[in-house]
Write a structure and sequence with these properties.
single chain; Ribosomal Protein S5, domain 2; 3 domains
């Protein structure tokens, strides 16, 4: 193989964009002061690795894989994965420090190891003894679970070849390095090269690999954006430290839905599955309080009932405040403008605070009507019936548009004892009376919904 030559260049630590000199603002991602000098090794043109040589094939001549998924024996994790782990896949898990990334990984390896499959936990930040302390706390004691404290990706791959595990976890990708790249661990180049080597091994040996990643202060996985493009699946652990509930959300999944979530509760013995999150999120709902509305949201294939809370109060300063937790603030501002213009409510000059109880984050437009009704309820100081459900999308003209899978939402509400539902008229006309025992009230505009409710 021809010799390589070493060069020095500046690389953005956010997106990986290179530059021959230092610049203050990255032209690719717009971040300031993100360029760091790195030594890079470039091979001369014409050099192709033997492992990457292949020939074009007709799609009808390619033999599809019939290998079944590997169950993690954790129902919520299997749901987010799309039914289990696909052999040869690479999964990237990100989240805040202490959120539960290492805990769920160790629990998963222990349960898989209990089914006579060899697993390997690679730690680049802890010693064997520290991992043992966590394993003892969560009760991980499988005879097929191996622990390896190492930072060199070459040594890690060597042990993977020797042990031949079915599942491996690398904690974390920012802590390991490759000797082929002259740069510090955690740099853009090191993360990219190490992830590429792990991905190549996973694809050629059929081993499922979990990569645990740190996140930046903005909440995104630290390292170049190409890292998320490289892997097959990207998960984010969400949750507040003040709450015991954790949400595992899929933002990319080549083998399943990208909207699925798994709900866990952090306990002393590790993460415990929450099989009925709707009941948990509504367990502390206040009865007879204005501004509280229950709305069903669809996360992948799972309907979840959540409580939306609104507080509308007079503004004591010139500029009214808008504070939202769990809901897009721009969406709330849009709905406030619709209520002012279409429903005639003098609400734009009020301070508005909104929250989704339980620490859930919702981006689905089907909660628009629930958000609007909670704002009106708080503004008029009139509580809403405790057995009433509200959902629907609201347009700029004040119209209430239909949403998908209304039948699933109603079935979930029926299980928890809801008796009445305000929904888009188009959804009401399409639902058969035999599907649900809930009394349905169809509305076609926000004014119509307010008249029915208040």
């Amino acid at each position: 193989m021809k010799k390589s030559r070493t060069l020095s260049q500046f690389v953005c630590q956010i997106c990986g964009n290179p530059s021959p000199r230092w610049i203050g603002k990255c032209p690719s991602c717009g971040e300031w002061n993100s360029y760091v000098e790195e030594r890079v090794e470039r091979r001369k043109a014409g050099v192709v690795e033997e492992n990457w040589r292949s020939k074009p094939q007709l799609i009808n001549e390619i033999e599809g894989s019939n290998e079944q998924r590997i169950s993690t024996h954790i129902g919520e994790l299997d749901r987010v994965l799309g039914g289990g782990l696909v052999p040869g896949s690479v999964v990237l898990v990100g989240g805040d420090p202490g959120i539960g990334k290492s805990t769920i990984a160790l629990q998963m390896l222990d349960k898989i190891g209990s089914s006579d499959m060899r697993t390997l936990y690679v730690t680049g930040e802890e010693s064997h003894e520290q991992v043992k302390l966590r394993a003892r706390r969560i009760g991980a004691s499988s005879d097929n679970l191996f622990v390896f404290a190492e930072n060199s990706v070459e040594n890690i791959l060597e042990q993977l070849v020797k042990l031949s595990p079915k599942i491996a976890v690398v904690d974390s990708i920012q802590a390991i390095y490759t000797e082929d790249f002259p740069s510090a661990p955690g740099s853009v180049g090191q993360i990219r090269e190490c992830a590429a080597k792990m991905m190549q091994y996973a694809k050629t040996h059929g081993v499922a690999i979990f990569l645990i990643g740190h996140v930046t202060k903005e909440g995104t996985i630290a390292g170049p954006r190409v890292l998320e493009h490289l892997v097959d699946t990207v998960f984010y652990f969400e949750g507040e430290r003040d709450h015991s509930y954790r949400i595992l959300r899929a933002v990319k999944n080549r083998f399943g839905s990208t909207n699925e979530i798994g709900v866990f509760e952090m306990q002393e013995t590790g993460l415990k599955e929450v099989k009925n999150p709707s009941e948990i999120f509504l367990s502390e709902r206040p009865i007879g309080s204005s501004g509280s509305v229950v709305t069903p949201t669809l996360e992948g294939t799972r309907p979840i009932l959540v409580e939306i809370q609104a507080l509308v109060s007079p503004c004591n300063f010139g500029v009214p405040r808008r504070t939202t937790i769990g809901i897009d603030s721009n969406r709330v501002s849009l709905l406030v403008a619709v209520l002012e213009k279409r429903a005639g409510l003098q609400i734009l000059g009020q301070d508005i605070f909104m929250n989704v109880a339980g620490g859930v984050r919702i981006v689905e437009p089907a909660i628009d009507l629930g958000v609007s009704i909670s704002l009106v309820s708080s503004f008029l100081n009139k509580p809403i019936q405790s057995d009433l459900l509200v959902f629907g999308e609201v347009g700029l003209s004040g119209e209430v548009r239909g949403v998908s899978r209304a039948d699933l939402r109603l079935r979930e509400a029926e299980k928890l004892g809801f008796k009445k539902c305000i929904l888009p008229r188009i959804n009401k006309d399409r639902i058969k009376p035999s599907i649900s025992s809930i009394s349905l009230i169809g509305v076609n505009s926000i004014e119509n919904a307010i008249e029915v409710m208040f």
